[in-house]
């Protein structure tokens, strides 16, 4: 898919809605770069940077990392050349403050958000997904023990890396992350709805069905087909 100006998509949905899974599948197909704020924090954590250590205290409690550092981290990442064709944002923005900072940044470079797909999933399903989620220690690919298992148990299909369970995917932290989503992030749905940018997709469907629905909506938004 080629377009004259870079495309910017914002995937919105509660933790476990499938944002990361879908963004990873669609980035190559759409020629866009997936930028996941959660992955960026976890990379910093792995490399024991100052930012990683700061983020850890929030991530462990299922709270949001403060806006200022989060915005700077994502903006820096979006300036790199591999984002020139555009970006799928996954997990950012998560507050209204982050959303307006993103708008200002894009406006300053003559760009804008093209679409903000909202993935809707029931809380019971989210809890089942998050507590069964497994992630590759090496490449970050996401699996589910039951819903999306790797070919070989605990081994990444993509790179052979070891799969692990994120410490914030415990039931207790998951409950708080859902609370934080509804309180602090769900207002973004209204924010983008008012701009005519939302499209609502039933994220409770099978992975491939969600993927096709997203692809249809994105292609219509980018090319008016
Ligand atoms: P998010 O990035 O929104 O937090 P993920 O993409 O990490 O969500 O998905 C959460 C968990 O649910 C993962 O274990 C993933 O394999 C699984 N999953 C993703 N999409 C679906 C789906 N449509 N049906 C069932 N399980 C899914
Ligand atoms: P999930 O896949 O469950 O939605 P993420 O990997 O996106 O989770 O995020 C994990 C944690 O990283 C969050 O609970 C939060 O502490 C932190 N985080 C990620 N993105 C943001 C953001 N945009 N603003 C503040 N904190 C964030
Ligand atoms: Zn891997």
Could you write a compact summary of the structure shown?
48% of the residues lie in helices and 15% in strands. With 225 residues, it is an alpha/beta fold. The model has no long low-confidence stretch (mean pLDDT 96).
Task: Describe the model.
With 225 residues, the chain is of the alpha/beta class. It has a domain at 7-121 and 185-222: Rossmann fold. Helices cover 48% and strands 15% of the residues. A hairpin with a 5-residue loop joins strand 5 (133-136) and strand 6. The model has no long low-confidence stretch (mean pLDDT 96). The protein binds adenosine-5'-diphosphate (ADP) (2 copies) and zinc ion (ZN).
- In the CATH scheme, the class of the domain at 7-121 and 185-222 would be Alpha Beta
User: What global shape is seen?
Assistant: globular
CATH level-4 homologous superfamily of the domain at 7-121 and 185-222: P-loop containing nucleotide triphosphate hydrolases
Specify the CATH architecture of the domain at 7-121 and 185-222.
3-Layer(aba) Sandwich
Tally of extended strands? 8
Give a list of the ligands.
adenosine-5'-diphosphate, zinc ion
Distance between the termini: 13 Å
CATH topology of the domain at 7-121 and 185-222: Rossmann fold
Lateral strand order in the biggest sheet: 1-3-2
Average pLDDT reading: 96
Question: Which stretches of 5+ consecutive residues score pLDDT under 50?
Answer: none
Determine the number of helices (DSSP H or I, runs of at least 4 residues).
9
* Strand-residue proportion: 5-15%
Query: Radius of gyration in whole Å, from Cα?
Result: 17 Å
One letter per element, helices H and strands E, the order comes to EHEHHHEHEHEEEHHEH
